[in-house]
Please model this.
Amino acid sequence: MHESGVIEDYLTALSAQLPPPIVDELADGLDETRQRYLSQGLEAEAATDAALAEFGTPEVILADFTGVSPAKRAARRILGAGPVVGGCWGIALITSRAWTWPVPTVGRLLLGVALVTVIGLLAAAAFGKKYRSVGRAGAAGCVGMTVLDTVMLVIDAIAVPVMVWPVFLAAAASAARLTFTARTLRTLLAD
Model:
């Protein structure tokens, strides 16, 4: 009976953070490892303990899965592209005199607050230590970045009086990031 309770507790600890398909796969692997130890002549309790030792503690498994989380990778890529895309928009806004565009001050402030919030969510995903938290922050950051890039492209299409090359460059950079983020978001929401 010892082995059943120990394995159950182990899998329960993992299921608190990992999605069910991953936990199911780990359970299968753990069972196969336990069976291998049983076939080598170990008693049931010793086989269970050996299999669990081989797998590592739940904390180690969770840290490993968090480290390779799709949300963590996506957040790091989006944050890495941020200064390039932001720089393109900075140049575009300055060269096209964005302060003269017909965008209300409240709208500008909301965009700024939204940008800071999205960066915070992406940073939480990029540097987070818990799988579920990383996934949620990454998905929310991707949604936010998708919205921000879409808004910038719409503002660009509606409010820019004269299209100059920096505006085209910034729009292209946002469109590329928007495409990446939208594709990534599908993966994150499926997780």
